[in-house]
Each structure stands twice: as structure tokens, then as C-alpha cells.
Amino acid sequence: MLIGVTDSGIGGLTTLKEMLRVRGGGDYIYLADTASCPYGNKSAAQIADLARQNALALQREGAQTVVLACNTATACAIDLLRAEFAKITFIGTEPSINTAKIYGSRLLVLATPLTLAQPRFARLLQGVECTAPDCRRLAAEIEQSYPSLLAARKLLRKILAPYAHAPFDAAVLGCTHYCLLAKDVRKTLTLPVTDGNGGVARRVRKLCGACSSPARVRLVTTSFANYRAVRAAAKDILGENVLLY
């Protein structure tokens, strides 16, 4: 079984890493839409169109299950994709509000403005107090500054500075790119930090089963100029035991 995974760039590799940890291995195609990165500064209609194009590309490659390893794409497009592509099983990524609730109801949610503005996100908020910093530039900074992440860490410190001593119970990472800074968020805020990757991985295992074969990942980028950078990030994030081709 070929499983497609797509994101605007390298953030979704954190999702794929968790999928491999939980599922064990298997064949994957990772589509990084680097030509359109970042997604968070686009309109919902633009994101829906991009998600449709990516789904078509993965369908042509033979993927029957597609993971939207992007909170913004999930919020803007997953319902439309499920209605159009009846033969593909779509698995989305959402801010882990329900997981964070075990720590309390006062949550700091880091997500793109577009994710925060969607009805899918609003439905997650029952019973919690949500504060959302302005993270509109963070995903792009992570993408551009990886692997050093120096510029991204500097921006993150600026974003979190007003909240460093606020009485939150947990922080929620509502963008897969932000997972690359999870340790920095935890250190700065001294709070539990949650993200949606674990839930995605468990869903993939439930629907697709565990796999004992080696992990093989085909990398595709929509901008050839970014291929080497994505490949280097994949090697770093996924580890040496994953075959990239």
C-alpha cells in the first residue's frame, strides 16, 4: 500500500516520522508543495485549490490514502477533498486541543491565522480558553532557516515573550512546522506541549495496519530548486534507516 503525505514544505516530515514510529515502515510518497510555501498567508480558496492539485498528483502516483500533514490544508480543504475523491481515504491534521485538555482548560495555541479562522478549528474549542499569538511568519522562517533554525528561534522568542509568565496549562502546536521548535516552546514557557502528529499516526495505523517492511519514502517537490533542501531535511528528520528515493 502506498500512502501519500503532503505539506507545504518540511513540516509534514515530523508527521511522517511519527507515522513510521507508530506503524513501523511501509511505502510512502511525500509531496512538499514548496512552490506554494507557506500556506498560512493565502486565502482558504487558494489552499483548497492547492490541496486539490496535490491530491490529484498523489492519486496519479497510486496513493489510496493521503495524509494532509498540514493543519491549514486540513482546516480549509479536507471536507472538499473527501467529497470529490471518493476512492481516496483522507486523514487530516488538527490542533491537539483535546489532548491538551488533560492539563487544563487554559491553552496557548500556536497556529496560522488561516487555521484559526476556519470553522473546523472553532468546533474544537468547547470547554477551553484559547489564546493565540500572531504566528503568521513563523512557518516560513522555519522553512527558510532549517537546519540551523537560528532565525526561527529568534522569531519564536519574540512571539512568546508576552506569554512567558502567563497562567496557561499547556501549549498546542497547530502547525507541523512548529513541531521542529517543540523543545524551544517547552523551554520558553515551561509548559506541556502537544501536537497532532500522534493522533494522525494512530489513525494511519488503524486504517492501514502496521507494517514490518522497511520504510521507503519517495520525495517530490513542486519546486525543483527546493528538492535538495527537502531531501536533506528528510534525511535529518526521518533518520538514516529510512530509504529516500
Please name the defining characteristics of this protein.
245 residues; alpha/beta; 10 strands; 4-stranded parallel beta sheet; single chain; Rossmann fold; 43% helix; 11 helices; 6-stranded parallel beta sheet; globular
Task: Please explain how this structure is put together.
- The protein is of the alpha/beta class and 245 residues long.
- The protein has two domains: 2-93 and 198-244, Rossmann fold; 97-196, Rossmann fold (3-Layer(aba) Sandwich), CATH 3.40.50.1860.
- Helices cover 43% and strands 18% of the residues.
- The chain has eleven helices and ten strands.
- The protein has helices spanning 12-23, 44-60, 71-84, 97-100, 113-116, 119-122, 138-145, 150-160, 182-189, 197-208, 227-238, and strands at 2-7, 26-32, 65-68, 89-91, 106-110, 129-131, 170-173, 193-195, 215-221, 243-244.
- The strands form two sheets. It has a six-stranded parallel beta sheet, sandwiched between helices. A four-stranded parallel beta sheet has the order 6-5-7-8.
- Helix 1 (12-23) packs parallel to helix 11 and helix 2 crosses helix 3.
- The longest helix has 17 residues, at 44-60.
- The chain is globular.
- The two termini are 17 Å apart.
- The mean pLDDT is 97.
